[in-house]
Design goal:
alpha+beta; 10-stranded antiparallel β-sheet
Length: about 160
C-alpha cells in the first residue's frame, strides 16, 4: 500500500460479497466507508419486476449516484418523475428528495454509490429485515440520523405507488 493513500486498494469479488435479500430485491454489499477511507459506500441492487426500492427521502451529507446496469428504474427527483434505462446515470445531491422503484413491468439492476461514504451496510441489513417482516419500520425511522436517510412525504410518489396497486 502507498503510505500516502488513505486506504488500501479494495477488491470485492462477486462470489464473496455479502448479500441481503427480501422478497423483491437482492442487495450486494460492495464497499462501505470503513474500507474506503470514508470516500464512498457502494452496493448493487437487483429489483424484481415492479419492485419498490425506496420511499421519498433525502440525505444531508451524501450525494447518491445511480447507474443502471440492466432493466429500467423509475425515479422521482424533487417532484419530477423519469425512467432510467440501461446505461443511464443519475447523481442526486444532498438535501434533494428522491425515490425509486423498478419501472412498471420491468426489472432493474442498479449500482449505487454514496459519497462521501458513511457506514450504510447496517442500514441495508436492517432494511432487508424490515422488508422480510423481521423488524418494524419504526427501527428505520429511529435510524434516520445515524444513516443519513430522512423520509419525506411526497404526493407524487404516493400517486405512483397507488397506481401500482
Amino acid at each position: 500500500m502507498n503510505e500516502n493513500a488513505p486506504f488500501a486498494p479494495l477488491l470485492t469479488r462477486a462470489a464473496a460479497a455479502e448479500t441481503t435479500a427480501d422478497p423483491s430485491s437482492v442487495m450486494t454489499l460492495l464497499a462501505d466507508s470503513d474500507t474506503t477511507g470514508g470516500l464512498l459506500t457502494s452496493y448493487r441492487s437487483t429489483f424484481a419486476e415492479g419492485a419498490v426500492g425506496a420511499p421519498a427521502h433525502f440525505h444531508t451529507k451524501a450525494s447518491e449516484m445511480f447507474f443502471v446496469l440492466d432493466g429500467s428504474l423509475q425515479v422521482l427527483v424533487g417532484e419530477e418523475l423519469s425512467v432510467l434505462e440501461k446505461g443511464d446515470f443519475l447523481l442526486v445531491p444532498p438535501h434533494t428528495p428522491h425515490a425509486f422503484a423498478a419501472a412498471p413491468g420491468a426489472e432493474a439492476d442498479v449500482l449505487f454509490v454514496f459519497t462521501p461514504g458513511m457506514a450504510r451496510f447496517d442500514y441495508l441489513r436492517l432494511l432487508g429485515r424490515v422488508m422480510r417482516g423481521e423488524a418494524g419500520f419504526e427501527e428505520i425511522k429511529a435510524s434516520s440520523e445515524q444513516y443519513d436517510n430522512h423520509y419525506v412525504d411526497s404526493p407524487v410518489w404516493q400517486r405512483v405507488l397507488a397506481e401500482r396497486g
